Amino acid sequence: MTPPELAGIYRAYIACLNARDWSNLGRFVHDDVRHNGSRLGLAGYRRMLENDYATIPDLHFNIELLVSEPPRVACRLRFNCSPAARFLDLDVDGRKVSFAENVFYGFSDQKIIEVHSVIDKPAIETQLSARTHPSGR
């Protein structure tokens, strides 16, 4: 698989997530997928994503940076959303926040089999703190 072909598969995966097209998730995600070292399997991965959308009703994945080097993809995703309540152990409670997620994917048989993800939680904390203390005190 070439880098442009793998990037195309990844972009189609992101479109699947944004459409909440769970019935087609298995086209992009391997049955034995692992997330941050934990084996979730396709069903567990789907539950994780469904929970993300339940927690963040306006969730939308925006590709900010994408590097494809088969069998791996590295991506910086950008989010501008309003988590309904607690998110990452923070009381966001419907406030709009902007943050990035840096994700590395491993592919097997043209499907995602491993995901390593880090969310920029300090960016969210900074935004929440600035809104709580607008004068900086």
Automatic annotation (TrEMBL):
The lineage of its organism: Bacteria, Pseudomonadati, Pseudomonadota, Gammaproteobacteria, Pseudomonadales. InterPro entries: Cyclase_SnoaL-like, NTF2-like_dom_sf. It comes from Stutzerimonas stutzeri. It holds the Pfam family SnoaL. It comes from the Bacteria. This is Ester cyclase. GO terms for biological process: polyketide metabolic process.
